């Protein structure tokens, strides 16, 4: 499907004024900016954000308010477990926080992926990692699990000793089972 068609299909004006779409290459620079200014995310190369906009647009979303990028989520299906959606980064520009923008980004993405489409199986599990000091992100995913009636479990994954640069540990948050519902 052409990217433009897909974007039009994904458009969801919602109630808070944020339009949510799958990203295109034109969105990569703003994602990089929001990640840089987030105060919490690892800033990856600008190239990495462009790559997600090209190769993982289906499992990523961008929110815009009045034409301005307000937030994004980047995800991919794990190659060895394609019914599992890994959320790599999610961030909302400080000016738009506390307005459910990130909750809507997640709901929009998962709503599509829990319905089987083409050769890929329906997503049944969402995974992400969160450092122990990131209470906003913990609240976001706890709220998501509650809304979707799914269990949230945490297990160690990336230990501080795995990182070469003093990075904090990143435990794994696993949320499931996710099933299609008319509530989201
Ligand atoms: C985490 C982040 C994406 C949340 O975005 P947001 O759009 O403000 O979140 P929402 O408005 O959708 O809120 C979702 C839930 O989290 C809660 N929450 C949001 N920010 C919070 C905070 N700072 N402290 C405590 N709870 C918080 C909300 O109350 C809400 O809970 P509810 O649904 O039970 O009412 C945003 O704070 C951010 O960009 N932080 C920096 C980047 C980051 O840490 N990303 C996650 C790691 S990959």
From TrEMBL:
Occurrences of domain N-acetyltransferase (ranges): 18-170
Entry keywords, A to Z: Acyltransferase, Transferase
The EC class name is transferase
EC number(s) in its UniProt entry?
A: 2.3.1.178
Gene3D superfamilies assigned to the protein according to its UniProt record, in alphabetical order:
3.40.630.30
Report whether Acyltransferase shows up as a keyword of the record. yes
Name the pathway it acts in.
Amine and polyamine biosynthesis; ectoine biosynthesis; L-ectoine from L-aspartate 4-semialdehyde: step 2/3
Residues of the region (Disordered) are 1-22
GO MF annotations, alphabetized: diaminobutyrate acetyltransferase activity
Name the domain of life: Bacteria
Concerning NCBIfam families, the annotation shows: ectoine_EctA
Q: Give the family this protein belongs to, as stated in its UniProt record.
A: Belongs to the acetyltransferase family. EctA subfamily.
Q: What is this protein called?
A: L-2,4-diaminobutyric acid acetyltransferase
What's the source species' lineage? Bacteria, Bacillati, Actinomycetota, Actinomycetes, Micrococcales
